[in-house]
Amino acid sequence: MSQRQLAERLGYSDSMINLVERAKRPPSKQFAELCDRTFALDGTMLRLYMATTWHKAPEYLRPWLEEEECATVLRTWQPMLVPGLLQTQAYAHRILSTWPGVTSEQVEERVANRMQRQSILYRDQPPSLNVVIDEEVTRDHIADAKTMREQLLHLLEVAEYPHVTIQLVPYAARPHCGLMGGFVIAERNGMCYAAYTDAQPVGRTFDDRQMITDLIRKYDAIRAEAVPFKESVRLIEEAVNRFDA
Questions:
Q1: Tell me: the pLDDT tens digits for 119-170?
Q2: SUPFAM superfamilies from the xrefs (predicted)?
Q3: Which of 67, 75, 102, 238 could covalently link to 185 via disulfide, CB atoms 3.0 to 4.6 Å apart?
């Protein structure tokens, strides 16, 4: 396909195609998505585009971003916060602003990166996202009431997607093995191949088979304590009403 033919299909000028091909101008997210559609690719161009934004993320997180992009299934447990892939911009800003010594510019870059990461949930073939969170996350006043209400409504919206499941672990389940920290497990082609764990001072990514197996067992044990999906949605709706009060 010539540059002119591609330009006509994408709705861009010949010169824009030329500049992107020669790495003289970075493509936009829309450009990447249109290329995927035109060439019948399974998100390849979008993943490459995402790779160009990783430098805006904290260095410790970059290895995980690469693994996250390739996953067909993501399983996550979070005892304290809404998972990053489901955070609203205002909620993410509140969380990322708490880092000691962080500048306003760094916060804006990291919020933008977090929002960009969420695009994997809206591509043509998104990964299945199985989220288990502590009920406390829906009640905690980690931000102002408006931000919390907006965040909870966003959870309800995302929960309507067929590839997303959200479950809450109730207070009655405590103590349980998930209280020591959150984590995410990435799966591709039926095999769990990477994981990310929360830790101090920063989280870490690993691919050790035994450690991943241990996390899978822990995830299954935590999820066994969670209430069913429909009941979890009802509890989130109740939490929204409390922030309305």
A1: 888 887 899 999 999 999 998 888 899 999 999 999 999 999 999 999 999 9
A2: lambda repressor-like DNA-binding domains
A3: 75
Strand, helix or coil for residue 83: coil
State how far the Cα of 224 lies from the Cα of 118, in Å rounded to an integer: 27
Query: Domains plus CATH for the chain?
Result: 1-52 (1.10.260), 61-244 (3.30.870)
DSSP H/E element including 18 = helix 14-21
95: left (phi over 0), alpha (psi -120 to 50) or beta: alpha
CB of 232 closer than 8 Å to CB of 226: yes
Predicted structure pTM score: 0.78
Both tokens assigned to 244: 């309305």
- β-pair type (204-206, 191-197): antiparallel
Span 99-112, pLDDT tens digits: 889 999 889 888 88
Phi, psi for 124 (deg, rounded to 5): -60, -40
Residue 11 neighbours by CB under 8 Å, 6+ apart: 34
Q: What's phi and psi for 91, nearest 5 deg?
A: -65, -45
